[in-house]
């Protein structure tokens, strides 16, 4: 159990940090940065990783029932749309709050979805885990309040360049995106047992299953993202922005983002396996909560909250405390199981 928890926390740390290099790109519009990012993380990185690491790649996926792959693909398309909306939310509410609201929604719904697929655990285990999720969600609410307070502070001081109501708009986009993004949890829960069996039959190590699970999820989710950003790059006439002296540096930064994003997701899938019978629920909650906590800290370090009042910062610190306590309670629930 301890190994699984450490892996889930590690995956959350990676996911919480993956978007940080985006702050240092130059001469790219939103569409350039995230369009290139999604092409790399959804296609290039998973294809190279899968073909390199999965022994007998073609036969492994040929052994997985078609209806299972279809369910994974459909859920992954919804996940792709949700992640895209999260990227938009960041423009309105910043990295730390964008992560908080988006992933708070993901935690609430995505942690429950595996129970629908795999069945409910014992009553005492279920109640403990739900209590932990509730504490985490309190943290999300406090984080939302911190963001709204910060916006009011910046508007009153004249330091905000955003229109009034940007925070509400961003939070709405993040919540809707989070609901759709729970397709990732469903795809992992429904596909992992079959892909694990196929990987083991082909003589792969246990951890390779995580790579196998990510392949259909990322490719399917990537299709909708590629189409969206190709359209946006055309509408915004942003294709020419790729022709910049900063392209090489930007590419390296975005490639690092892509590797961290993919590796975090694959590490979560392996952590869920290591956590045992209810690993999908426990792992998903710990993974995403660790991600939010990391994003909050990175937001503080990168001075997103430098102009916020002490009241806003207190809400932020309270939210971080709730999330940490929530993770501990969820881990205890897994230990009881």
Please give the largest β-sheet: none
Please report the total strand number as a whole number.
0
Taking all Cα atoms into account, the compactness measure Rg is: 20 Å
Helix content: over 70%
| Total of helices | 13
Shape: globular
The succession of helices and strands, N to C, reads: HHHHHHHHHHHHH
Indicate the structural class: mainly alpha
Low-confidence stretches: none
What integer is the average pLDDT?
83
Task: State the separation between the terminal residues, measured CA to CA.
Answer: 10 Å
Q: Which percent range describes the beta-strand content?
A: under 5%
Give structural notes.
- The protein has 337 residues and is mostly helical.
- The protein has 13 helices and no strands.
- The longest helix has 35 residues, at 123-157.
Annotation keywords:
single chain; 0% strand; mainly alpha; 337 residues; globular; 81% helix
Summary?
By secondary structure, the chain is mostly helical.
Secondary-structure map with pairings?
Elements: H1 2-17, H2 30-53, H3 57-62, H4 66-93, H5 95-110, H6 113-118, H7 123-157, H8 166-181, H9 183-201, H10 208-235, H11 247-274, H12 279-301, H13 310-336
Helix pairs in contact: 1-11, 1-12, 2-10, 2-11, 4-5, 4-8, 4-9, 4-10, 5-7, 5-8, 5-12, 7-13, 9-10, 10-11, 11-12, 12-13
């Amino acid at each position: 159990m301890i190994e699984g928890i450490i892996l889930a926390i590690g995956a959350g740390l990676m996911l919480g940090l993956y978007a940080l290099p985006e702050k240092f790109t130059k001469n790219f519009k939103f569409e350039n940065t995230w369009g290139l990012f999604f092409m790399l993380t959804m296609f290039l990185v998973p294809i190279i990783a899968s073909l390199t690491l999965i022994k007998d790649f073609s036969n492994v996926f040929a052994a997985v029932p078609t209806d299972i792959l279809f369910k994974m693909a459909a859920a992954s398309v919804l996940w792709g749309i949700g992640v895209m909306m999260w990227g938009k939310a960041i423009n309105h509410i910043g990295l730390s709050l964008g992560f908080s609201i988006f992933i708070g929604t993901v935690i609430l719904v995505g942690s429950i979805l595996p129970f629908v697929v795999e069945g409910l655990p014992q009553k005492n285990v279920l109640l403990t885990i739900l209590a932990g999720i509730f504490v985490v969600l309190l943290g999300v609410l406090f984080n939302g309040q911190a963001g709204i307070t910060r916006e009011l502070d910046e508007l009153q001081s004249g330091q905000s360049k955003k229109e009034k109501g940007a925070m509400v708009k961003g939070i709405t986009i993040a919540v809707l995106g989070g609901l759709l993004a729970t397709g990732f949890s469903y795809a992992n829960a429904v596909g992992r047992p079959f892909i694990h069996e196929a990987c083991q039959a082909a003589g792969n190590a246990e951890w390779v299953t995580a790579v196998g699970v990510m392949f259909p999820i990322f490719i399917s989710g990537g299709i909708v993202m590629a189409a969206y950003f190709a359209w946006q790059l055309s509408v915004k006439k942003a294709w020419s922005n790729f022709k910049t002296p900063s392209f090489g540096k930007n590419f390296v930064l975005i490639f690092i983002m892509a590797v961290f994003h993919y590796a975090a997701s694959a590490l979560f899938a392996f952590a869920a396996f290591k956590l045992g019978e209810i690993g999908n629920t426990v792992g998903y909650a710990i993974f995403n909560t660790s991600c939010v906590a990391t994003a909050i800290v990175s937001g503080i370090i990168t001075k997103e909250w430098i102009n916020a009042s002490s009241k806003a910062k207190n809400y932020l610190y309270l939210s971080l405390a709730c999330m940490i306590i929530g993770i501990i309670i969820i881990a205890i629930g897994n230990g009881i199981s």
